[in-house]
Design a protein that fits this description.
Layout: H1 3-8, E1 13-16, E2 21-30, E3 33-38, E4 51-54, E5 58-59, E6 64-66, E7 69-73, H2 81-91, H3 96-106
Antiparallel strand pairs: 1-2, 1-7, 2-3, 3-4, 5-6, 6-7
Length: 115
């Protein structure tokens, strides 16, 4: 499966950053690579640094690679799965066109992967 299809289908995926994993809500192509967006990115109380630029290309058909990081689909047995289910339920209540506009505007900013 292509990773953007997984995002469109709301497939629960995580990126393994070595010392921790992050759930991915969205992926945005950036001139320097890809920006992945944390779940709860629209909630200022839950996310203070939700956009992360990885200066690399995505490879694979699942699991995927983004530079040195592996992105995998998770299932109900994964420790972050309940967080994913909560995010999906909450995100249905938010106007997605407004979110996408905010993400597109934010994609032009400088990002890092330090958090």
């Amino acid at each position: 499966m292509k990773i953007l299809d997984a995002i469109k289908q709301k497939t629960p995926i995580v990126i393994d950053l070595g010392d921790h994993e992050r759930l991915i809500a969205e992926l945005i192509k950036h001139p320097q690579g890809w920006v992945f967006v944390d779940i709860w990115w629209t909630d200022p109380l839950n996310s203070t640094h939700p956009f992360h630029l990885v200066e690399a290309e995505i490879t694979g058909d699942g699991p995927w690679r983004l530079g040195p990081y592996e992105i995998t689909e998770i299932n109900a047995g994964h420790h972050l799965y309940s967080d994913w289910k909560s995010w999906v339920a909450a995100s249905r209540k938010v106007d997605s066109s407004r979110e996408r506009a905010a993400m597109s505007a934010s994609a032009s900013l400088d990002f890092d992967i330090t958090e």
